[in-house]
């Protein structure tokens, strides 16, 4: 063992000395230089999550709030993206290596304070308006979604973000937020490798012939959602917190019905996601 240790030390010293001799890897920082020829194996990327938002205000106000207000985001997709030489333009407000203030109090799959480990994309969209029949959600434009898709593909590739870590603001803060809402095209984006999506045959397997709206034990659904990544109670009761979290899950994966009820289709979707991403 002692010989191996000495050999390892000798090799490490040789590498360091070789690096010192390679002046091409010296970075000048004014009063000193940094040798970048040797890199530790004990490191990983800061960015692990990609979070989607809508701004809930118009372009001018969005830019004002995200650059001079209390919040920020790494990118802003305008309501009508301008095109330069055939390519749509997104606004970069915060460099990705820096921390933007977009997630707030947040939690996903056991990790909290996602500002520290995420990139945030804000999309100019009014969100919803309250009308006589309830909330009316406003759609995103095809040009916006194409720009967001191109941006997300690039971010995911560079940071090696897994599909289940591409999330909605409402996924990581379901008691406070509803963005990007039920009209955000998660299924369409998943077809391009952006975000998670359940396989329909697997959903049908777990549905097992039950009516989609058939009630299910709340505790079963609470446990499934917690295992997938959501933060919610595990007591088997129907309370406001559980209803909001279930509704957030439905906005992402079953936008046709976001009532927050614990039903068979919601449970089947959760189980299909667990089979695909948590086994």
UniProtKB/TrEMBL annotation:
SMART domains: Ami_2
PROSITE patterns: PROKAR_LIPOPROTEIN (PS51257)
The UniProt record lists the keyword Chaperone: no
GO biological process: cell wall organization; peptidoglycan catabolic process; peptidoglycan turnover
Gene3D superfamilies: Peptidoglycan recognition protein-like, PGBD-like superfamily/PGBD
Catalysed reactions, semicolon-separated: Hydrolyzes the link between N-acetylmuramoyl residues and L-amino acid residues in certain cell-wall glycopeptides
Secretion signal, residue range per the UniProt entry: 1-20
EC number: 3.5.1.28
Highest taxon of source: Bacteria
GO molecular function, one term: N-acetylmuramoyl-L-alanine amidase activity
Keyword Hydrolase: yes
CDD domains: PGRP
GO-annotated cellular components: outer membrane
N-acetylmuramoyl-L-alanine amidase domain boundaries: 35-181
Keywords attached to this entry: Cell wall biogenesis/degradation, Hydrolase, Signal
Similarity comment text for this entry: Belongs to the N-acetylmuramoyl-L-alanine amidase 2 family.
Protein name: N-acetylmuramoyl-L-alanine amidase
Lineage: Bacteria, Pseudomonadati, Pseudomonadota, Gammaproteobacteria, Enterobacterales
């Amino acid at each position: 063992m002692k010989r191996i240790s000495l050999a390892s030390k000798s090799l490490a010293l040789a590498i360091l000395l070789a690096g010192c001799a390679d002046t091409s890897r010296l970075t000048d920082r004014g009063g000193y230089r940094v040798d970048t020829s040797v890199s530790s194996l004990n490191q990983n990327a800061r960015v692990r999550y990609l979070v989607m938002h809508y701004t809930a205000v118009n372009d001018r106000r969005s830019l004002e709030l995200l650059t001079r207000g209390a919040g920020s985001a790494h990118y802003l997709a305008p309501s009508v993206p301008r095109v330069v030489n055939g390519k749509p333009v997104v606004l970069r407000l915060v460099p990705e290596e820096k921390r933007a203030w977009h997630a707030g109090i947040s939690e996903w799959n056991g990790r909290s304070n996602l500002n520290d480990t995420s990139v945030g994309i804000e999309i100019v969209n009014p969100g919803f308006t309250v009308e006589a029949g309830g909330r009316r959600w406003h759609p995103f434009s095809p040009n916006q979604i194409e720009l967001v898709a191109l941006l997300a593909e690039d971010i995911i590739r560079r940071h090696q973000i897994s599909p289940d870590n591409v999330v909605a603001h409402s996924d990581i803060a379901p008691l406070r937020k509803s963005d990007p809402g039920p009209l955000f095209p998660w299924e369409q984006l998943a077809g391009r490798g952006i975000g998670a999506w359940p396989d329909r045959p697997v959903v049908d397997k777990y549905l097992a012939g039950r009516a989609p709206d058939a009630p299910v034990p709340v505790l079963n659904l609470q446990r499934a959602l917690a295992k997938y990544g959501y933060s919610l109670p595990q007591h088997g009761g129907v309370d406001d917190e559980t209803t909001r979290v279930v509704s957030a899950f439905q906005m992402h994966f079953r936008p046709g019905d976001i009532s927050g009820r614990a039903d068979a289709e919601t449970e089947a979707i959760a189980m299909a996601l667990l089979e695909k991403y948590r086994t």
